Amino acid sequence: MTIWNKSIVAMAILSVGTLAGATDVTLHLKGSQAMSRSTVEYQCDAAGVKMGLPAGPFSVEYLNGAGNSLAILPVNGDSLVFANVVSGSGARYAARQYIWWDAAGRSVSFSSDSMAGKMRSECHRIHSK
């Protein structure tokens, strides 16, 4: 490996390490649509805990603007960003193997379809902020 190749590999490793430590995300949206932000507190059953949700009440942050909808959930101790996907009813969000589905105020579920199999948790709102 030449010194040039070693330098490129070293820069790539440094940049990945720098990105992995980042905790803030800035979204720049064009257009006149305002960004709305809300936080809702939930608690899920034991199946949710097995999939990585907190055992007690936890907050989910919702961001909506410029035709985009995101939900940020605490999964396995990390903040996981879920993007809104097409749904027959309610708001359905996906990230990795997980689905967070708020079925138009009737129910909220958290599910996983992974190599370990399919799991589903029922959740309920505690309150909105």
Walk me through the structure:
The chain is α+β, with helices and mostly antiparallel strands. The chain has a single domain (32-128), classed as Lipocalin. It has 2 helices and 8 strands. It has helices at 3-20, 46-50, and strands at residues 36-44, 58-65, 68-75, 78-85, 91-95, 98-102, 108-114, 117-128. An 8-stranded antiparallel barrel has the order 1-2-3-4-5-6-7-8. The longest helix is centred in the first third of the chain and has 18 residues, at 3-20. The radius of gyration is 18 Å and the shape is globular. It starts with a helix and ends with a strand.
Largest sheet strand order: 1-2-3-4-5-6-7-8
Mean pLDDT: 80
CATH top level class name = Mainly Beta
The number of distinct structural domains comes to: 1
Total beta-strand segments: 8
**CATH architecture term:** Beta Barrel
Low-confidence spans: 1-20
- Number of DSSP helical runs: 2
> Portion of residues in helices?
10-25%
CATH topology: Lipocalin
Q: CATH homologous superfamily - what is it?
A: C-type lysozyme inhibitor
Oligomer: single chain
Could you give the distance between the termini?
56 Å
Shape: globular
Largest sheet: 8 strands, antiparallel, barrel
Alpha-carbon Rg, integer: 18 Å
Look at the helices and sheets and give the structural class.
alpha+beta
Order of helices and strands: HEHEEEEEEE
